[in-house]
Write a structure and sequence with these properties.
This protein has 223 residues and is mainly α. It has 2 domains: 113 residues, RNA polymerase sigma factor, region 2, helix turn helix motif (Rna Polymerase Sigma Factor, Chain: A); 97 residues, Butyryl-CoA Dehydrogenase, subunit A, domain 3 (Up-down Bundle). It is 72% helix and 0% strand. It contains 11 helices and no strands. Helix 8 crosses helix 11 and helix 10 packs across helix 11.
Length: 223
């Protein structure tokens, strides 16, 4: 019985056409209500509604984190398969979204470690993350920011992604959650299972490291 149920969920994850008509039925339900219904009734449409609710948002997060559409697709599939297998461990009173992001970001880090040749500077979907790159670049002070350099936004965005890719996986995870995904510190704290004060401290440290990399890149270009 468990095997048949798992196959049903796995098929829904890999089939974008399935369950779409069910979505409007659950639009008024919270994530946590859908999880509770799925746990008690074991109806695949409840899980499918959760998956489709976060499909675009989570895929965008993974694409930016991993720098590749194909890699994001692989980790996205693995994330929801893990959610399905571990959903009985979801604690009542907790929020589903941070729990989902914790699984997804940990999956992404594991994937990056297994694929050392991965480069976060992939051009897949670059135009969609330019705005976030520019926002992050605006927080990095430039020693010699000329009008010409400011005008070259595309080049700057690529350099930001290159700088971020030189951080370790945990710091990249923090940058992605805080600046690209725009999550609140409280949400990040819940995802990483650390105090909010620790999140603030780590963000400050991450930006300092990113600034050091940025300045070193500028010095290398001058020399």
């Amino acid at each position: 019985m468990q095997s048949a149920k798992s196959n049903s969920i796995e098929e829904s994850i890999s089939s974008p056409e399935s369950g779409f008509s069910q979505e409007c039925r659950f639009v008024q339900w919270t994530d946590e209500q859908l999880v509770d219904r799925y746990l008690h009734e074991q109806r695949p449409e409840h899980f499918e509604a959760l998956m489709r609710r976060y499909e675009r948002e989570l895929f965008t997060f993974l694409r930016r984190f991993l720098g590749s559409v194909q890699h994001a697709e692989d980790v996205f599939q693995g994330t929801f398969l893990s959610v399905h297998l571990r959903i009985s461990q979801f604690e009542p009173g907790k929020r589903f979204r941070p729990w989902l992001y914790a699984i997804a970001s940990n999956k992404a880090i594991d994937f990056m470690r297994r694929n050392k040749r991965h480069q976060a500077t992939s051009l897949d979907g670059v135009s969609k993350q330019n705005e976030a790159d520019e926002a992050l670049a605006g927080r990095i002070p430039s020693r010699e920011a000329t009008p010409e350099e400011i005008a070259l936004r595309s080049e700057t965005n690529s350099r930001v992604r290159l700088a971020v890719s030189q951080l370790n996986e945990q710091t990249q995870q923090l940058i992605q959650l805080a600046f690209y995904q725009g999550l609140k510190y409280a949400d990040i704290a819940e995802i990483l299972d650390i105090p909010v004060g620790t999140v603030k401290s780590r963000v400050f440290t991450a930006m300092r490291k990113l600034n050091e990399i940025w300045l070193r890149m500028q010095e290398n270009e001058v020399s």
